[in-house]
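sanity check both lines:
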Amino acid sequence: MRARKGWQRIISPDLRIKSITPWGSGKEKKSHTLMPGELATAKLHRQFTLPDRQGQSPLPLTSTRSILARLGVEVHNSQGRIPETLMQGKTPSEVMLLHHGEVPVKMRRGNRITRMYFPQLTKPLRHAEIQKMRKSGELVLGKDCKVHSNGLVEIRVIPVVYEIPPDAKKLLAKENWLTGSKRNAFMQLLKRVKKPVRIHSNHIILTETLPVKLPKDVAMFFQRTTDGSSVHIQSHLIDPGFKGPIAMELLGFHEKKSRPDTVLAWLCRAE
C-alpha cells in the first residue's frame, strides 16, 4: 500500500480467507462453520507493505465485512502479532474471528472477510469545516446531530432493532453468506422492529443511524456510543462518499442494560 495515494493508501482492498484454524485445534481447514461463541484464526490470501508516515510505519486496524458483522462475527488483529507486523513492515498474515451472534456461520477459502485501514494517515475536520459542509448540503449528519468544538460529532441511533425470527435461523445457517454479494437477501430474512435499543454486556444488537451523506473525500471513524456502553464491531471506518443509514452492530460492555441513543465519530480527510 506504500505506493498508493489518497484513500487507496489508507484503505486496503478486500482480503480473503486462505485457511481457517479453529481455536485450539492446530488444524488448518479450507472451510469451516463458525459456531456461536467460537474463536478461530484465518490466514489471509495476501499482505501489503505498511505505508510510511514521517519515517514510521503505523499499525493497521481491521474493518470487518458488513454481512459478516451482521451475523455477529468480529474480525480483529491479534496483539501478539504486533512485533511481527512491525519487523516485517507488512500487514498481518492472519486475523482472529470471534462469533458473538446466534447463528452458525459458514465460510471457506476465497471468502472476503476484512480490509485493513490506517486512521493515522488522516486529518480530522475542524468544527468550522464541518458546519460549512453541512450548510452547503455537502455533508448530512441527520437530525439532532451535535458537533462539538473539537470536531467530534454525535450521530443519532434510531429506535429500530433487526431481529432474527426463529423460523429463519435454519435458513441462515444453511447458506454461505460470504460467497458473492448477498447482503440484501440476508436483510430480507430479518425482522425490523421499532423499539428502543437496549443492550448489555456481551450482547450484540443490529440497529441503524439516521441517514447520513459524506463527501467523496471525507470518511467517518466511529469511536463508541456516547454513554460508553457499547461499540460498533463491524469497523470504525465508514467509507468516503457513503450515503444512507449506517447499520450498527453494537456489542455491549456493561453488565446493566443500557440504552445508547447516539454514537461518537470523527470526520477525516486523507493527509
Observations:
- The longest helix spans residues 127-136.
- The chain has a mean pLDDT of 88.
- Residues 67 and 181 are 9 Å apart (CA to CA).
